[in-house]
Amino acid sequence: DPDSGDNGLLHYSLVRGRTDEFDINENTGQIFTVSVAGKTGTFNLEVQAADQGTRRLTARTTVSVTVDSSSSSNIVMLVLNQKINVVERNSAEVQRVLEDKLGWNVYIVDIYSKETERKARSSTDETQVKIIAFDEAHQEVPAEDVKRKLREQKGGIEEELEKVFSASVSAAIGEAPGAPASSELVAAIVLGVLLAGTFIAFLAYVLLDLRRKRKYGKQDLVKKVKIMEGIDNPWAVDKNGSLKILEKPEHMNN
């Protein structure tokens, strides 16, 4: 808006769409997720920009947001000693405190507890908050940098969150679940297993074949030895166990 003063001051808002899963920075218009864990697909959001003049002028547009199933490796988990329903209710203030202390744009990816039952959700004093930070160029801040800054600002963060929750707060860095293996890695693992299985089957076949050849080779050798013994020995045992003289064939007498 080229106007000056209030007529050029724009505020952004989501007027239609998945407002429970997405939110927008009213001053910059930047859209971010609130909770899309386990969801994929394209979401259409209607965004409104309004100036702050006496006669407010507005304009709207539709923004399509595509959520894929991959997860960032720069997500950091912050563990708070607060009930999950309390953290959820004050998520905007938690985000504000983190942005103020870290100096980056911070978005809360997910808020969850190990306990899922309603009664446990209000009684378990431990909540995991997944966050991701973006710098001024809207690039993800490496997880290790976020963790380092969280450690440096731990005291200040806890002090400000105590004002939000009106209670003593402990903030610790947790271990976020690892990203799932890429399809290329999975394919490589499967191919490796198949090749290993094929090699083992081939090796087993070779060993069995060698054993079979050795077995039949021994049998042939025994037969040859028996034949040679029968020729060299003029006496042989018949099938009843009695001795008999081996008679030479007539053609040998001749």
From TrEMBL:
<dbReference type="InterPro" id="IPR015919">
    <property type="entry name" value="Cadherin-like_sf"/>
</dbReference>
<feature type="transmembrane region" description="Helical">
    <location>
        <begin position="185"/>
        <end position="208"/>
    </location>
</feature>
<dbReference type="InterPro" id="IPR039808">
    <property type="entry name" value="Cadherin"/>
</dbReference>
<feature type="domain" description="Cadherin">
    <location>
        <begin position="1"/>
        <end position="77"/>
    </location>
</feature>
<dbReference type="GO" id="GO:0045296">
    <property type="term" value="F:cadherin binding"/>
</dbReference>
<dbReference type="InterPro" id="IPR002126">
    <property type="entry name" value="Cadherin-like_dom"/>
</dbReference>
<keyword id="KW-1133">Transmembrane helix</keyword>
<dbReference type="Pfam" id="PF00028">
    <property type="entry name" value="Cadherin"/>
</dbReference>
<dbReference type="GO" id="GO:0008013">
    <property type="term" value="F:beta-catenin binding"/>
</dbReference>
<dbReference type="GO" id="GO:0005509">
    <property type="term" value="F:calcium ion binding"/>
</dbReference>
<keyword id="KW-0812">Transmembrane</keyword>
<keyword id="KW-0106">Calcium</keyword>
<protein>
    <submittedName>
        <fullName>CAD87 protein</fullName>
    </submittedName>
</protein>
<dbReference type="GO" id="GO:0016342">
    <property type="term" value="C:catenin complex"/>
</dbReference>
<dbReference type="GO" id="GO:0016477">
    <property type="term" value="P:cell migration"/>
</dbReference>
<dbReference type="GO" id="GO:0007156">
    <property type="term" value="P:homophilic cell adhesion via plasma membrane adhesion molecules"/>
</dbReference>
<keyword id="KW-0472">Membrane</keyword>
<keyword id="KW-0677">Repeat</keyword>
